[in-house]
Amino acid sequence: MDTQQLPRGLVNQLLQHAQAHPQHEVCGLISAAHAAPARVYPIANTAGEPQHLFAMDPAQQIAAMRSMREYGEDLYAIYHSHPNSPPVPSATDLAEAAYPEALYLIVSLQTKGVLEMRGYRLRNGTVTEVALEIAE
Questions:
Q1: Spatial distance between the Cα atoms of 1 and 136, rounded to a whole number of angstroms
Q2: What Å distances lie between residue 13 and 8, 26, 90, 99, 100, CA to CA?
Q3: 20 CB contacts (<8 Å, ≥6 apart)?
Q4: Cα gap 17→28, rounded to integer Å
Q5: For residues 116 and 11, is the Cβ–Cβ distance under 8 A?
Q6: Residue 102 burial (C-beta neighbours within 10 Å; 0-12, 13-18, 19+)
Q7: Topology of domain 3-135, per CATH?
Q8: Are strands 116-123 and 126-135 parallel, antiparallel or unpaired?
């Protein structure tokens, strides 16, 4: 199984973003510098039903990608939360996965008091789980 290391500070940012909006899916991008996760780019969720779906604000997504280029970074991961379901890709997540090289991270708020995050590769209609390790 593929294993990806995520810095603790970055993981904390994702969890805090999800906790700040527990009734809606949050979403964003993570950049990489020299193949290592570098920055979190929270993006507004503009979906019509944000409690069940996410759609990244196009202008914010473009601005985040531009910022990555300016810093010499690449897209590393796409993240979103599931307020009321496990951290497993939905059929919609799989159908809308447009970046096969990116890691997909899902944070679940389903368990009260305990957040769970899992990682996946979504490629060609298949889901492959990725082991996540938190690095100091």
A1: 22
A2: 9, 12, 23, 22, 24
A3: 26
A4: 10
A5: no
A6: buried
A7: Cytidine Deaminase; domain 2 (3.40.140)
A8: antiparallel
Q: How confident is the model over 34-78, as pLDDT tens digits?
A: 989 999 999 999 999 999 999 999 999 999 999 999 999 999 999
The residue type at 131: A
| Token pair recorded at residue 93 | 């997540």
Cα dist from 134 to 9, 29, 71, 81, 108, whole Å? 9, 18, 24, 18, 17
What positions carry a catalytic annotation?
25
Residue that the structure tokens 């970046």 belong to: 99
Distance from C-alpha of 132 to C-alpha of 105, rounded to nearest angstrom = 10
pTM confidence score: 0.95
> For 23, which DSSP code?
T
Distance (Å, rounded) from C-alpha 4 to C-alpha 36? Answer: 9
DSSP for residue 56? B
